[in-house]
Amino acid sequence: MTGAASGAWEAGDPPLVSLRQISKSFGANRVLYDVDFELFPGEVHALLGENGAGKSTLMKILMGIHRADAGEVVLQGEPIGGHSVSDHLSRGIAMIFQELSLIPNGTVAENVFLGHEPQVARLWVDQRAMRRETERLIASLGFELSADAEIRSLAFAQRQMVEILKALSRGARVLIMDEPTSSLTMREETALFELIAGLKRRGIGIIYISHRMAEIFAIADRLSIIKDGRMIGPLKPGDTSVEKIASMMSKASSAATLPASPVTPAVRPTSAGPVLEVRSLATRGKLRDVSLVVAPGEVVGIAGLVGSGRSTLLKALFGLLPDCRGEIRLDGRVIAPGRTHAALEAGMALVPEDRRLEGLVVKHSLADNIALPSLDRLRLGRLLPMVPAARQDRLFERFRQALNIVATGPSQHAQLLSGGNQQKIVFGKWLARAPRLLLLDEPTSGVDVNAKAEMRALIRSTAATGVGVVLVSSEFDELVTTADRILILVGGSIVATAPDQADEPTLRAFLQTEVTAAKTRVPA
Ligand SMILES: Nc1ncnc2c1ncn2[C@@H]1O[C@H](COP(=O)(O)OP(=O)(O)OP(=O)(O)O)[C@@H](O)[C@H]1O
Hints:
Blueprint: H1 3-6, E1 17-26, E2 29-39, E3 44-49, H2 55-63, E4 70-75, E5 78-80, H3 85-90, E6 93-96, H4 108-112, E7 119-120, E8 124-125, H5 127-141, H6 156-169, E9 174-178, H7 186-201, E10 205-209, H8 213-219, E11 222-227, E12 230-235, H9 242-249, E13 276-283, E14 287-294, E15 299-303, H10 310-317, E16 325-330, E17 333-335, H11 340-346, E18 348-351, H12 355-359, H13 366-371, H14 375-378, H15 389-403, H16 419-432, E19 437-441, H17 449-463, E20 468-472, H18 476-482, E21 485-490, E22 493-497, H19 504-520
């Protein structure tokens, strides 16, 4: 599907939204410089830029969360004055967040109309009208969804649909989507693109933020790039290429070199054998009889659909699941399952998928965050347990350069960093510990295209020092370019190894075949 071909947007239509000459600073940090941006009815306009370039800030101004220092937001020819989220929402501007904000034990209809329920004589909620309206909306978009279904029973993609219904029920004309495919299976991704085509036909304009180039070329009518707070574009996807966009986004492209001495190696290999040996690992319902071996210097990729048990496997290895059974050996030494402290001590490190919940102490400084797992090695000495701030700052500086982290300095609070830069901090803090085994769960999710390449090179160069790596990723290009071997996980079991040297389409097709085969297999 090409964006322009499937869209309702025609050049010459008046714009739905115009952002004119927008400027914004946070304290002394100037983030946006005189930015112009337009969105037309029925258009998918992709917004790109390196992590920390200012995309979310611009969108928050459009949504009324932040007020611009200068410039104006114009909706269908009318400038929007104040900055109030409810005002902008009532004018039809809505954002579909990555972390969805639904009430799990409410129904679809209750969530869709949350906060603007139809009422009977302003006394009570008109349940029937709410259901009827929800069903009408569902039917008009051709969703497969019941108005009565409870949110907690729905898959992520269906929850995303509810978020979209919620926005449309409030009369949204502008939808902002931030990395909407990151938690979707392949089939759900196709369904989302079809849904977007339907929204376009209704004249809804979509601002699509993503670091995944393939999907931008699949669905965007136009794209604009923010570089260091300044706007480049708009461009037509047909007039450019992934390489050109990557070089337009990048400042001076920084060399992906790991700081040569990551603190000091924590645990030296005790044998020349495998780094990791796992036998018959199982957790109730989620992992079944998983066995795998990782050699020193090897990157083992795990491919699977959403819900196949990929994150569970990493958590089980790292001792985060108490009800886990089986045998785990690191450098030949047995690590009891369900013991995080033992896993950490033995030299494992886990970069979790959910950086905000599991990866960062958001109210602490970047230097604190990056140093946290390495404090024992940053201390002055055994008898002098204090950690000099300068050591933490130096550690932060090394990773800031290697990963091109956009931050005001080591003392900046982690919560003020852009999403992609937060991910780089989580990645850096575990790399700094110099682990023996690095467990990576979607390590480059939300990270810009240049930084993705840098992080992948870093994973390779870390492995080259003898570290074992288990890499879970839903980005097939990441697996085929970074992993030495790719295991296929279906329904909590490793069912196959992908063919050597498989390219992206081969891996995609191989996984699909294994998923289909697993459905027909009789359970043992
Ligand atoms: N509330 C805030 N206070 C201070 N600084 C902020 C705040 N919000 C964002 N920033 C800073 O503004 C800059 C732009 O951040 P923004 O989140 O807009 O980037 P982004 O392009 O969306 O990045 P990403 O791709 O990583 O999501 C960053 O340097 C960030 O640290």
